[in-house]
Design goal:
By secondary structure, the chain is of the alpha/beta class. The chain has 7 helices and 19 strands.
Length: 338
């Protein structure tokens, strides 16, 4: 039977209880806001039919039973909201805690079996109290890119003696959470679609079709389709055309992270561009924090280590690089910083 429990410092209890009341009254649609990574967040209406389809698809994909859930990600965003909807639809117990960097700090988690994290949260929990994860059968991770370092930590922690499967999710507000999953425990390379979902590629952009819902969606995500699933290369909005070479920042940034860490630079960063008369767009590296005096030396290392034409030509420093509340990077143009 459905039951909601709230930590004493959980701030969205009133909003959650309003959604519970609306669900129980049979409301036909619910409003959520998009993440706002590529612009101002917008409201999306999600039908009850879509929410139920998503809940059922997740249950079938993960072979879920009668679960106990901890919701520790923002409940007014898609991932957290779907934890609530699954609990309502299947009659599960759900415990709401504040979505902080280590939501399991000081929490007794041994009776819970299902949860969702942002990559940052999972990274912190694996560093500080990994024992709090041992009872979970399934853990979903989404909302931002999973780096190579976190992937290594997952592999190291989740050895053959564990009964936990950690899944990277792919989806968006318009699809009511994920439509595909990647098993990180098995180090799978590609996302596999859930039952009833078909994907296609139009000019390298991922298209999603769910016939049962009469839903067809063309995304802005660039993808490669494979026999075993699909890989996301990055967002079309983020592609940089420098001298006729199309550069996908999301594909290069993990390599840059490894290079910077090898010379003990641990700062948020991302690739962007500025106008250039010769190249059209000049690739640049934006780092958070005070300027580094030997920036030229760092640029030379990046040029030596990165594939041809993918190295940043200049480096700029900003006071703060912003992220969404799920940890997704907000890729501002350099000109947008004051």
């Amino acid at each position: 039977m459905f039951r909601a429990i709230y930590h004493s410092d959980f701030k969205d209890r009133k909003w959650v209880e309003e959604q519970i009341e609306r669900w129980n009254a049979g409301q036909s649609s619910f409003m959520l806001k998009t993440s706002g990574t590529t612009g101002k967040p917008k409201e999306i209406s999600l039908s009850r039919e879509l929410l139920i389809w998503s809940a059922n698809a997740t249950k079938a994909s993960l072979h879920l039973g009668q679960e106990k859930v901890i919701c520790c990600i923002p409940v007014q965003k898609t991932g957290g909201f779907m934890q609530l909807i699954r609990a309502l639809h299947f009659g599960w117990e759900i415990y709401f805690v504040s979505p902080k960097s280590n939501p399991f700090e000081g929490e007794e988690t041994s009776e819970y079996s299902f949860t969702s994290f942002t990559p940052m949260q999972l990274d912190v929990v694996l560093n500080e109290n990994p024992e709090s994860l041992v009872s979970f059968k399934n853990i979903l991770v989404g909302g931002a890119k999973i780096g190579a370092d976190l992937l290594q930590k997952i592999q190291k922690w989740n050895d053959s003696s564990r009964n936990t499967t950690i899944w990277e999710t792919y989806g968006m507000t318009e699809t009511a959470s994920h439509i595909a999953l990647k098993n990180l425990t098995k180090n799978e390379a590609y996302f596999k679609t859930q039952e009833g979902v078909k994907v296609n590629s139009k000019e390298d952009r991922l298209g999603i079709e769910i016939k049962e819902l009469n839903l067809n969606l063309d995304t802005n995500d660039l993808a490669e389709l494979h026999e075993d699933g699909f890989a996301i290369l990055g967002r079309r909005d983020n592609v940089i055309n420098s001298g006729g070479i199309k550069i996908h920042p999301e594909s290069i940034e993990p390599q840059i992270a490894d290079i910077l860490e090898s010379i003990r630079i641990y700062r948020p960063f991302y690739l962007s561009s500025i106008p250039d008369k010769l190249l059209g767009e000049k690739l640049i590296l934006i780092l958070e924090g005070t300027p580094i005096t030997d920036a030229g030396f760092i640029l030379e290392i990046l040029k030596r280590e990165l594939p041809a034409y993918t190295n940043p030509k200049e480096m700029f420093f900003v006071k703060k690089i912003e992220t969404t509340d799920t940890g997704k990077l907000k890729r501002k143009r350099l000109s947008e910083y004051s």
